[in-house]
Amino acid sequence: MEKMLLSQREFFNTNETKQISFRVDQLQKLKQALKESEELLFEAIYIDFKKSPHETYTSEFALVYHDIDEAVKKTKRWSKPKRVRTDLLNFPARSYIVPEPLGNVLIIGAWNLPYLTSLAPLVAAIAGGNTVVIKPSEIAKNTSVAMQKVLSAAFKDNYIHVVEGGIPETTELLNHKFDKIFFTGSTPVGKIVYQAASKKLIPVTLELGGKSPVFITKSCNLKRTVQRLIWAKFLNAGQACTAPDFFMVDKVIKQQFLELAKQEIIKANYSVENDNYVQIVDRKNYDRVLALIDPGKVYFGGKTNEKDRIIEPTILDNVSFDDAIMQEEIFGPILPVIEYDNIDEILGKVKALPKPLACYIYTESGEEKRKMLNELSFGGGAINESHMHVANSNLPFGGIGNSGIGSYHGEFGFKTFSHFKGIIDKPTWFELRLKYAPYSATKLKWIKRLFR
Ligand code: NAD
């Protein structure tokens, strides 16, 4: 590892990765390598947790390809020094901001969207002009092997290198000096990464998770709300960082919501036989999710298939904030419904929880939208939609508080993997002598005037 990291530093120091043409070439090479290996990559994720080609494309590759295309088009513009105004005190001079690569960066991915959480940051890191070490999650084993195979065939080790492994390998990586760590995963592991990074003053981006709340008010378009939410909740069998976690439904429409939600689940035909539904990734997670189902509160679903690690979409009714399901991120196909009759009261309860990665508000009332956006703090989210804010690369994607630090996608990703140098460029033909000794009351008077 030491040798590989040294070779990455040496390569970075040749300045080759800084050239815009190099970055663009490498982005195109990445896209070509992924396209050519789609069969291998799609098969690997199917073995890991029966993720269908439909979901694999829509929730992983579509976003990565879009990010690559955008970065190919815009890296030159993003990398240009930007002129800014020069203040009077510095006159005459030119002031500009110069983006520069950070250097040798480490990307640690999660298992639930194994390609997206490793490759989307990789695109941004390449656009930023860095050398990269990627550590995909060991839990989605086959995708980790596949990515290693594809990336090592396309790129030299001294530029992009995949380290496979779990806790020991990640711990070892965290002992090294990187110029940036970009981590996607759980909040507890995020804290471990942050702590390790702090010892070497390494900047971090932490893309974490949390319990993303959903508000369904009585003014919503209920039919559309249910259609969008059932898709969003059971995509990847709920194993998504931006999955709608718990549903707060106005008492007046709750019964109707429950019935429509049940019908929508039946209509979607979530069965493994026809690839509409994915498995829970491993036995540990299967047991964990199962333990969150209170049999006395099941409104619909609840059936399981232990051999294939399948948990049917399950709706829980009459859930309260004290229930086990409300104590951790669900990360599985369970839909808990909490009824409310006072919006301020329910907002108060949500505000008392850690700040989530996403929040979803289903309402047709402008006043309700404004109120919730104004009062709640969360990473990002949507009104009358779920997950889809992640697909718009003009929006920053990231958490706040317990759900993360920093953001990426599109230009935000480029910025995450760049440093911005502020420069004053001064001609020598003129000098204002105010700052120099010997000091005097007149000089001070003028400085005070100029600094006003
Ligand atoms: P995780 O934290 O268990 O693992 C993430 C990575 O950290 C893996 O590569 C793993 O090998 C490594 N790791 C695990 N334990 C470690 C330790 N003790 N020391 C060092 N490294 C360690 O997360 P996960 O189970 O892969 O993913 C699920 C979590 O990730 C959920 O909370 C989800 O919300 C979050 N997530 C967030 C995003 C996002 O973009 N914000 C995307 C996907 C997943």
Measured distance between first and last alpha carbons: 54 Å
Proportion of β residues? Answer: 15-25%
- CATH topology name of the largest domain, in short, is Aldehyde Dehydrogenase, Chain A, domain 1
Mind summarizing the main beta sheet? 7 strands, mixed
Task: Give the names of the bound compounds.
Answer: nicotinamide-adenine-dinucleotide
In the predicted model, the low-confidence regions spanning at least 5 consecutive residues are none
Any idea how many domains?
Answer: 2
Shape descriptor reads: globular
**What is the alpha-carbon Rg in Å?**
25 Å
Can you put this structure into words, describing what you see?
The protein is an alpha/beta fold and 452 residues long. The chain has 2 domains: 2-208 and 402-421, Aldehyde Dehydrogenase, Chain A, domain 1, CATH 3.40.605; 213-393, Aldehyde Dehydrogenase, Chain A, domain 2 (3-Layer(aba) Sandwich). Helices cover 43% and strands 18% of the residues. It has 15 helices and 18 strands. It has helices at 2-13, 20-36, 38-49, 53-79, 114-128, 141-154, 167-174, 187-199, 222-234, 251-268, 283-290, 343-351, 366-375, 410-416, 441-451, and strands spanning 82-84, 94-101, 104-108, 131-135, 160-162, 180-184, 204-207, 212-216, 244-250, 298-300, 304-305, 310-311, 314-316, 334-340, 358-362, 380-383, 404-405, 418-425. The strands form 4 sheets. A 7-stranded mixed β-sheet has the order 10-13-14-9-8-15-16. It has a 6-stranded mixed β-sheet with strand order 5-4-3-6-7-17, sandwiched between helices. Helix 2 packs antiparallel against helix 4 (53-79) and helix 5 (114-128) crosses helix 14 (410-416). The radius of gyration is 25 Å and the shape is globular. It starts with a helix and ends with a helix. The mean pLDDT is 96. Nicotinamide-adenine-dinucleotide (NAD) is lined by residues 108-113, 117, 135, 137-139, 166-167, 170-171, 184-186, 189, 192, 207-209, 241, 329, 331, 357, 399, 404.
